[in-house]
Amino acid sequence: MSTQINDIRELSVQELSTRLRELKQEALTLRLQQATGQLENTARIKAIRREVARVNTVLTELRTKAAK
């Protein structure tokens, strides 16, 4: 289940950090499943990677806005 960018922008910095940690943990789990041949939905890796990028983008936007 991917999150829309507007939903991500509504989160606080703390919530974004937590979400990023959860996504990275899930990405690790998926990579381990892929390495052991247990991964069924390979497209999930791509979706997680893109969602991590979205969260990082919003975090950068917030930090840039706060610095000004």
Shape: elongated
Domain unit count:
1
Beta-strand content estimate = under 5%
Mean pLDDT: 94
CATH architecture title: Orthogonal Bundle
Which fold name fills CATH's third level, the topology? Helix Hairpins
Instruction: Give helix % range.
Output: over 70%
Walk me through this protein's architecture.
This protein has 68 residues and is an all-alpha fold. It has a single domain (5-67), classed as Orthogonal Bundle (Helix Hairpins). The protein has helices at 5-9, 13-35, 43-67. Helix 2 (13-35) packs antiparallel against helix 3 (43-67). The radius of gyration is 14 Å and the shape is elongated. The protein starts with a helix and ends with a helix. 7% of the residues are buried.
What's the short version?
With 68 residues, the protein is mostly helical.
What's the arrangement of secondary structure elements?
Blueprint lengths: L4 H5 L3 H23 L7 H25 L1
Helix pairs in contact: 2-3
Key phrases:
mainly alpha; 68 residues; 78% helix; Helix Hairpins
